[in-house]
Each structure stands twice: as structure tokens, then as C-alpha cells.
Input
Amino acid sequence: MSSNREKSMSLMGHLGELRKRFTYAGIAVVVCCIAAFIEKKYVFAVLMQPLKGTQYAGQKLLATSATEPFMAILKISIYAGIIIALPIILWQFWAFVMPALYEKERRSIFPYVAMTSGLALAGVAFGYYVVLPVGLKWLLNFSSGQFTVMLRVDQYVSFISLFLLAFGVVFELPVVMMLLAWAGIIDYKKMAKVRKYAVLVEAVVAMVITPSQDPISMMLMLVPLVVLYEVGIWLSRITARQKARRRELAALAEAGISENTTPATLV
Output
């Protein structure tokens, strides 16, 4: 156990560390937002890509006021900056948690950071390349003979950006389950026991965050959620084993017995 861990951090120390991590994350977001604003043409082209394959491909979005185009570009830059800065934001979260970990656990923190960042970016990519094109095509073609759909830039930008952010957050389900198991709030056995209820909740989540609520889009969202839940159970099982091992080593240390002590040396 490290000497830093032996000294319990005061409340003010925790608040100071939290403020520092928020500051670093905020700086990263601001820098990424500025970079996205500078490259606004490319970012906007990426945002328009899901319309490819619909009757609105290549068309300009509607702006109903003089300030709406600027505000839309600003909003795009902010959302894009948050998505780009996600790995740094998640690293700051793990850096805040790190002082509460043992030395061996600290050395394994980088795989957790990579996993958390990878899941968030995988969620954004899955929503962008798989679910969004299907959902938008269904929505825009629905009753197209009876209605003339006019895509307002502000509403379109908000819809796409929040949709992708939601996918990035939802894909963090295994990490959330692992943290709940680490905190002792729920263990993997209970998670496995309530699996059928979890599938029902996941179906509701899939229905809410998919853009069109059609069966195909819902299934495209539900299947990854079910898989992620199973991954979460697996990670929670590993966490439970690590906690049990840590308690065992703590008990041995309290009794003055070395980890490498054999039964023969105890006689």
C-alpha cells in the first residue's frame, strides 16, 4: 500500500482535487470547441452526412432568423468539442478516482481509461454510422406524400448532436455496472438474476433514444445494449474477485502473515 493512501485525504483535499480535474476537463473541452469552430465547414459536412440516401441529400438547411446560422455553428462546435474531448474528460474522472486505489490497481488504470474512452467513441460511431441513417431515412420518408418536411438548421443540429452524445453515454453501461460492483452497491449475481428485467429497461431506453422508434432502429440499439449488459456482468465478476483478493491480503497483513508464506512456515 502506498504512503499516499495511508494518509486519508481531507474533505478540502477531495474538493481541491475535484476542482482541479473539472478545470482540466473544462480546458480540454474549450480547446476542442475552438478547434471544431475553426474547422466548422468540415464538422458541418460530417453532420450532414446522415442525410445521404434521402431526398434531402445536398440540400441546404432552413434558417428562420439572421442569428440562427451562427448559433447553429456555435452549437455544433460545442457538441463536437465535447465528443472530441471525451477521452480527456474520462481520464480526468479516473485520475480523480486513482488516489483511492491500491498501487497494483493504479498500474492497471490505463486499460480502464482506454476501455471507457473506446466505449464512448464506439457508441458515437455506432449511432452515426448504423442507427442514424436508418432512423432518419424512415422518418423523412414517412408520409412524404402528405407532408413537406423542412429541416431547420437549429433543430437538426440539436437532434443529431444530442442523439450521438446519448449513444456515447449509453455505451458506458459496462463501466457503470463495474463501478457499482466496486462500490458494493450491487454484485454480479444480482445483475445476472435481474437480467430479464434489465432487457425490458434496455428496450425502453432503445425506444426513447432511437430517432424514429421503428422496429429496425430499436433492434439496432437493443442488441448492443444486451451485449453491453453481459459485458458489465463479466467485468463486475472480475471486480468481485479482485475485492475478495484484496480483503484476503488485508487480513493476512493484519495477522502479520506474508502473502508468500507457506503452510509449513506457519508450523
